[in-house]
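Supplementary Note 2. Why include the ligand at all?

Several targets in our set were suspected to adopt different conformations when bound, so apo predictions alone were not considered sufficient. For every target with a known small-molecule partner we therefore ran a joint prediction. The input for manganese (II) ion is given below.
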Amino acid sequence: MDLKIAVLPGDGIGPEISAVGVEVLKAIAEKFNHKFEFDYAPVGAAAIDATGDPFPEATFQLCKSSDAVFFSAIGHPKYDNNPDSKVRPEQGLLAMRKKLGLFANIRPIEIFPSLVDKSPIKEDIVKGSDFICIRELTGGMYFGEKYQDDDRAYDTNAYTRPEIERIVRLAMDYARRRRKHLTVVDKANVLASSRLWRKVAKELEAEYPDVAVDYMFVDNASMKIITEPRFFDVIVTENTFGDILTDEASVISGSMGLLPSASTGELTPVFEPIHGSWPQAAGLNIANPMAQVLSGAMLLEHFGLASEAKNVRDAVNAAIENGIVTPELAAPGAVTYGTKEIGEWLVDYIRE
Ligand code: IPM
Ligand code: MN
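The joint prediction is reproduced in token form.
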């Protein structure tokens, strides 16, 4: 298969983990006789420095004309504590999502058996957890009408029926291919937007009689993710709730550095780790590249390359089982590995 992949390394640890992800995809292409072309473009703080725009037009054009985007991370501390800065790296990510119409963000939460002791949650609660959080990505407060002056500010949590319908349908389809259990997370006891979500989802239930649907308030869901994570199969929720719940859900796996995501919708799909740019670690060769590498596996799966994706997942599992991990996942006193060295180990494994 020929694939044209736009690589957007971004900021902080982005370039280091991106390099590992690309090496792994190159090894797969070679082994399975595919032709992957990689074209690079700036995004986030790196793009602001280069062009003044966190998602420059040239980057958009490259994304649009590619089959997939392989994104890493954005964000820089020089913007975080300055509420008055007019341009922010995060706007690059939001612009990318909006312009590519990426309304569905798929975040699988999975526990690696050999890392179960790294979870902050007790083993008997967390082991065997396996769910997918589907986060609506181009609506809600992130994109609704905003206002800010020195005394008053608001963000509008607006959703339309078609926006809700398409994401709930997608979640129903995911549930169908899994354990057929969908949890719609909202705050329908307080928010009008949530009441519309619930109404639309309930109407769709009739079309998916094989899927068991339940409805849960977001505060309750955030508790249940910690106390009974095995309850969940597929969660669908709006943009802001999904942002918060997926950070929470990611740590039950033991490290945020393990979880990949895929964003799909109207134009080119994007594959990216769910973690941020960890600027303090930039250049130190200590960032865990696994989430990026697993995002590569999701990319391969998206194009139907199941054996290739399995090879990547096997490599990651083998590395973890063999203790080829960054410091946050290492056993006490064990040798730890750098970002680059983990990449080399994965590539060797794939070549063998
Ligand atoms: C994420 C991130 C982004 C978001 C930020 C960087 C804008 O936290 O992908 O979850 O809030 O969507
Ligand atoms: Mn987030």
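The pocket of manganese (II) ion (ligand 2) is lined by residues 243, 247 (CB under 6 Å). The chain is about 40% helix and 20% strand. Comparable summaries for the other entries are listed in the accompanying table.
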